[in-house]
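ingest -> validate -> predict -> emit
validate: passed (alphabet ok, no gaps, 238 aa)
predict: started
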Amino acid sequence: MPFYYFDWTYVVLVLPCVVLSLWASANVNSTFKKYSRQFSRRNITGAEAAQRVLSANGVRNVRIERVSGNLTDHYDPRTNVIRLSDNVYGNTSTAAIGVACHEAGHAVQYAQNYAPIKLRAAIIPITNLGSKLAMPLILLGLLLSFGENFSYFFVYLGIACFSLSLAFQLVTLPVEFNASRRAMQAIEQGGLLSEDEQKGARKTLQAAALTYVAATATALAQLLRLLVIFGGNRRRDD
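emit:
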């Protein structure tokens, strides 16, 4: 059996990534809170900054709405709406402007047919299905362990489904990095923030980017753990 009271694969491979993810989440919240106290001298709100990014790139017909919650900001391509949280929509802080411009960057990506974001949108249904089927297939393979070849077919099919989650995270990285780069370019070129204020927006976006790096690392570690557990078990059975 691949399960033990002490699972070294989790401790060595997954746990460090979980700790990294927890730190990245705490870091993005503390960074946003810090630079939420640094306000733009031009008194531009997050919603206004997002609109300026859209206008500068010739993007029309994208609505900007307020959404409840903390750091719940996102761009919805299905409805062509940028939703900014309460702490961003009407806020004039450098953190709010950075986040708002980042979400506007996603809208610009869609408008300009940026390939990675189109790919991410295309694989979302597949990755969602794969993530739901992964563990049931692996468990089914274990339950059918009396027929080794048959059971391992389902186990590895489940691992293949799980690997789709990693593929999604890998595609997400360039999408998020590019949106942040577009945001900072728009802030600099549009004069939305002065040079010394740009640090707040940049630090906020960098902190947010680390959460995606941590999520990718966690998905990779979990996939490696499955391969080590079941690959090692298969070799012992052989």
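The longest helix spans residues 148-189.
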